């Protein structure tokens, strides 16, 4: 009789922002439901696992950061497996699966995962399940969900194969007939393809007729008086039509009769219904759902009234940060520009030991918006306890593997402080969070909709209404008024409030004791679930801080402005995105919009160097800049033209994406609109600098479109100039990246 033994496997993750970590934890948590035991470790905890001796299947979940680099906590591991001294059968015994997370908006998609995979294979490891490459640019879950769904079967297959191979070997040994073939000592593994249709292991939810009638009742009732008006919830639906949509969730006969009744009773005309954040349409509204497993709760949170809780009012760990007064705030764009760009000058004279270089960035530490913090506290019913001390501990008997109190939460903070400085309350709720919210939602309609949003069937809706709209948790809670999560759930699911980096737009040589940076005030348009435009967290906060004293570029910047506030920053050095150390090396800079920021620093430094080294030979410098209108958002125009006049900048190529249309219509001549068009027009020069003169190519700014378009343009230019095919051009570009002569500093 086979006895019930839980079979083990190993889960290793490398994670920069916590996504790979939480996926790895999720896998470890549900392993038991599949009759398996997972051993979970971070790749840098090498005392907790031993790949050299590992006989169980190993699952790697790794993200990629920066310019294709491994996350910090995977660096050592990647370095170790890259050792040239390792033999090509070093991991012959190892059986692995790998899920790589990346973002196609950035160069070197999933590079860390690919590097690990390549090395594992070079070292003899065998793959037991097809590698998943999940793209944050379109939604990780598109690949992650089916990949995890198929993983369980694959692990079991690998385990049974390994067991039978082992039995064969033992049998062979027992018969004393060593017939070692090249394959017999390594498990012969079956590569499992992703099976998106395998429903066996997923929770299937059928909405009952009872729930449907509850929907109808709930939908026709008004929301509880303390909550936001329900009319906000269904902006696209005419009166009464929400009932039609909601009733269509029942069985076929239920929905038909409900529909008929509605049509007959209310005389509602046939309308084409629109889905929204809170309302779905068939087929989704009628579909059985596969929702993720409920993540186990793991934190116990209590609030305590204390007499003397020292109220911390600013950012934590102040001593590690640089406090800098803002000494100047200048609006660089005209009042009617689509985007508002602002230059801030910080006084760094209190920190003489901190020297930054052009190309470096600074993290700006900002709090959550006070009104939103208030709203969250009200929503949780904890506003009166906002000054109470928060105690957080691990829930006894939690099923969460490796549960830990988040390290960034100090034990002596108030609830108000927690929501102001510690948790990113603007973060887009992950599906696991939405799943957890289902359990705390009273209203049947709302519960079903939340189930849809976290289900596999509701992927498109989740992407459209939650992810792509950058919906915050607060916006989600406002749209689902019957959802009342406990405080502990928010602490478990909200990520750490992160500082925002900004590129230095100045050189210390030119502005000793000062630091400049430039930012666009980010705006999120109104959408289903967000009735009005919302500003970005940090840029909105900075804007509110400096708005009273903002001056326009070129206008009198009198020094009599009222005192400006101080902010906290910390230096983020970037050792590769620097002007070439060899002054004679030519370089090309591409920085449309605020992407020009670091290049202002590059050019200020170059100007000083030219003054200090009149005899030296300086390489050519090219800058490609682009904006909408010559008179609206041509940032740093005077300074750039000054660099050209002084000879610091050899070529300034500027294009205007909107002006040119008008001029073009008048002249009927095609003009460059975007930086990549201007690059193509100067193809020969640019490729000469890069390929013949050993020069450098820098790109800064928008990661979503511009950086990709520039990359494509560069590839085509190389193809044309070198007369090679696309593959060769790609190799040339890869070589330039490797040599750190094609460098990107991109965001968005
Ligand atoms: P949040 O509330 O955090 O919202 C962020 C959302 O806005 C994201 O969904 C993102 O897709 C979008 N977003 C991010 N940046 C932009 C943008 N510039 N324009 C439109 N949408 C955006 N930004 C600058 O303006 N100037 C800089 O010099 C600069 N340097 C950076 C350097 C580095 C190394 C990095 C990683 C980022 C840099 N950024 C810069 C981006 C900056 O850190 C913030 O992401 C940006 O200002 C939005 O912050 P927020 O808190 O206002 O928006």
Walk me through the topology.
Layout (H helix, E strand, L loop, with lengths): L6 E8 L4 H12 L5 E7 L15 E5 L12 H8 L12 E8 L8 H12 L3 E2 L4 E4 L5 H34 L28 E3 L3 H12 L20 H7 L4 H15 L22 E3 L7 E6 L17 E10 L9 E7 L13 E5 L4 H10 L9 E6 L20 H8 L8 H8 L5 H11 L4 H9 L5 H7 L7 H7 L6 E4 L10 E7 L2 E2 L9 E2 L1 H10 L4 E2 L13 E7 L14 E4 L6 H16 L8 E7 L9 H10 L4 E6 L2 H9 L7 H7 L1 H10 L3 E7 L3 H17 L3 H13 L3 E6 L1
Parallel strand pairs: 1-2, 1-3, 3-4, 4-5, 4-6, 10-18, 20-21, 20-23, 21-22, 23-24
Antiparallel strand pairs: 7-8, 9-13, 10-11, 10-19, 11-15, 12-14, 12-19, 16-17
Helix pairs in contact: 5-6, 10-11, 16-17, 19-21, 21-22
Bound molecules: flavin-adenine dinucleotide.
Notes on the protein architecture:
With 748 residues, this protein is α/β, with parallel strands linked by helices. Helix content is 34%, strand content 17%. The strands form 6 sheets. Strands 10, 11, 12, 14, 15, 18 and 19 form a 7-stranded mixed beta sheet that branches. Strands 1, 2, 3, 4, 5 and 6 form a 6-stranded parallel beta sheet that branches. The protein has a 5-stranded parallel beta sheet with strand order 22-21-20-23-24, with helices on both faces. Helix 10 (431-438) runs antiparallel to helix 11. The termini are far apart. Mean pLDDT is 83; it is low at 176-272. The structure holds flavin-adenine dinucleotide. Flavin-adenine dinucleotide binds at residues 361, 426, 470, 500-503, 517-520, 522, 536-540, 594, 597, 745, 747-748.
């Amino acid at each position: 009789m086979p006895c019930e033994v839980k079979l083990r496997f190993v889960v290793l993750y490398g994670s920069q922002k916590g996504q790979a970590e939480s996926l790895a934890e999720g896998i470890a948590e549900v392993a038991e439901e599949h009759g398996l035991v997972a051993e979970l470790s971070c790749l840098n905890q090498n005392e907790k696992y031993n790949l050299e001796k590992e006989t169980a299947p190993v699952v790697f979940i790794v993200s990629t950061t920066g310019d294709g680099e491994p996350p910090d906590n995977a660096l050592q591991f990647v370095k170790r497996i890259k050792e040239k001294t390792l033999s090509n059968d070093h991991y012959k015994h190892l059986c692995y699966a790998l899920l790589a997370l990346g973002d196609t908006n950035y160069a070197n998609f999933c590079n860390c995962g690919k590097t690990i995979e390549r090395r594992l294979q070079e070292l003899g490891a065998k793959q037991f399940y097809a590698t998943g490459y999940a793209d944050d640019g379109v939604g990780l879950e598109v690949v992650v969900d089916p990949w995890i769904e198929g993983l369980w079967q694959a692990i079991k297959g690998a385990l049974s194969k390994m067991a039978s191979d082992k039995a064969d070997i033992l049998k062979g040994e027992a018969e004393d007939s060593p017939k070692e073939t090249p394959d017999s000592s390594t498990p012969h593994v079956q590569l499992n393809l992703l099976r998106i249709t395998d429903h066996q292991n997923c929770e299937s939810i059928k909405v009952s007729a009872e729930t449907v009638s509850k929907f109808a009742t709930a939908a026709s009732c008004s929301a509880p008086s303390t909550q936001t008006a329900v009319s906000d919830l269904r902006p696209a639906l005419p009166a009464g039509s929400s009932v039609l949509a909601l009733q269509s969730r029942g069985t076929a006969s239920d929905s038909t009769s409900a529909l008929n009744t509605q049509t007959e009773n209310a005389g509602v005309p046939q309308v084409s219904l629109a889905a929204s954040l809170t309302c779905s349409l068939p087929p989704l509204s009628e579909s059985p759902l596969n929702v993720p497993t409920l993540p186990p709760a793991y934190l116990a949170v209590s609030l305590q009234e204390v007499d003397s809780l020292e109220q911390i009012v600013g950012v934590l760990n102040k001593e590690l940060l640089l406090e800098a007064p803002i000494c100047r705030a200048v609006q660089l764009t005209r009042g009617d520009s689509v985007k508002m760009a602002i230059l801030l000058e910080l006084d760094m004279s209190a920190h003489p030991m901190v020297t930054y270089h052009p190309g470096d960035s600074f993290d700006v530490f900002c709090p959550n918006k006070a009104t939103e913090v208030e709203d969250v506290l009200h929503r949780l019913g904890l506003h009166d306890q906002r000054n109470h001390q928060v105690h957080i501990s691990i829930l006894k008997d939690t099923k969460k593997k490796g549960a830990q109190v988040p390290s960034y939460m100090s034990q002596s903070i108030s609830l108000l402080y927690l929501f102001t400085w510690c948790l990113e309350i603007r973060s887009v709720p992950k599906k696991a969070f939405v799943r957890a919210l289902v359990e705390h939602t009273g209203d049947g309609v709302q519960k079903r909709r939340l189930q849809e949003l976290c289900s596999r069937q509701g992927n498109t809706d989740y992407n459209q209404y939650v992810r792509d709209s950058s919906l915050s948790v607060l916006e989600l809670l406002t749209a689902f008024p019957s959802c009342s999560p406990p405080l502990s759930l928010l602490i478990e699911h909200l990520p750490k409030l992160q500082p925002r980096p900004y590129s230095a737009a100045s050189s210390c040589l030119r502005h000793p004791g000062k630091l400049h940076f430039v930012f666009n005030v980010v705006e999120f348009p109104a959408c289903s679930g967000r009735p009005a435009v919302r500003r970005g967290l940090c840029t909105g906060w900075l804007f509110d801080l400096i708005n009273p004293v903002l001056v326009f570029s070129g206008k009198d910047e009198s020094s009599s402005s009222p005192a400006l506030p101080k902010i906290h920053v910390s230096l983020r050095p970037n050792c590769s995105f620097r002007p070439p150390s060899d002054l004679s090396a030519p370089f090309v800079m591409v920085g449309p919009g605020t992407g020009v920021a670091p290049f202002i620093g590059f050019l200020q430094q170059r100007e000083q160097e030219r003054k200090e080294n009149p005899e030296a030979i300086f390489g050519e410098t090219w800058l490609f800049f682009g904006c909408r209108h010559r008179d609206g958002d041509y940032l740093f125009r005077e300074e750039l033209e000054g660099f050209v006049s002084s000879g610091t900048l050899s070529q300034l190529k500027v294009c205007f994406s909107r002006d040119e249309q008008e001029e073009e219509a008048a002249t009927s001549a095609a003009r460059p609109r975007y930086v990549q068009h201007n690059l193509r027009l100067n193809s020969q020069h640019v490729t000469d600098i890069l390929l013949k003169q050993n020069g450098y190519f820098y790109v800064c700014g928008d990661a979503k479109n511009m950086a990709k378009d520039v990359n494509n343009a560069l590839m085509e230019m190389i193809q044309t100039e070198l007369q090679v095919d696309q593959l060769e051009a790609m190799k040339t570009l890869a070589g330039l990246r490797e040599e750190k002569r094609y460098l990107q500093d991109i965001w968005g």
